[in-house]
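Appendix B, Record 12. Input sequence as logged:
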Amino acid sequence: MSERVHPGVRLREAMGRGVVAAPGAFNGLCARAVARAGFEACYVSGAATSVCAGVPDVGLLTLEHFTRTVREVAEGSGLPVLADADTGFGEAEMVRRTVVEYERAGGAGLHLEDQVFPKRCGHLDGKALVPTDHMCEKVEWAARASRDCSGGAFIVCARTDARGVDGFDAAVERAKAYARAGAEMIFPEGLASEEEFAAFAREVRAGGSRPFLLANMTEFGKTPMIPLSRFGEMGYDVVIYPVTLLRVAMGAVARALETLGREGSAESLLGEMQTRKDLYDLIGYEPGKAWEWPVR
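Logged structural output:
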């Protein structure tokens, strides 16, 4: 058997070829569809993971719950998976455990944010931040855990929500501090224009530092809709679409339920459904034949 390449290495290689789109997958089946569509990476969103459990995105779910989703998406897709770790499920010791558990689950990397607990969605107002040195400690522990469990292959990304709390300049300064603390990737949350994204990339990389940069292309938030190619031109390495597929899916679910309730039949919905054949094809199943669990 050939030696497996760590998913973090595979993600770095993909980013080396150009900006990478990472759609958010909320379960293993969705992850298979992402891979089938030809994407090079997948994302696990804390917001999507939370709302799929019927709770808001305020840090209510456990590390075990998140890790299970990371494993499902990694196994289902076979792609490098970048995963949301919220505030790290606790302080430094829990941050270390989170890195180890996500890496064991097959993740390529994670991002930690600098909000206080309970956190809020990055595109809502009313957020509060931990002190910079507190977040730097978490980043240091995460980077050391990555070295210990993967030889540094697992990617540690630091997210800052400072733009919506203390302003753009504060976000830049925090990002620089997190990069010095060991974050290989930086995630500026809640930037409000193309100009801010471009300026952030320039300023964070001034002086020779060149961390990978992640952009969040979420809908209905503070960031305008910006094409993937434009993010690449501005120097971003990966763009996540955290809740896009879930929003599309739940929109279809709501419309289907309305139709079913009104008509008392699903017959008029048949043309909108994935057929049994297409579903089986997606999961690689042929009735009557033994299904082999994929080895990634």
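The chain has two domains: 7-242, 251-283.
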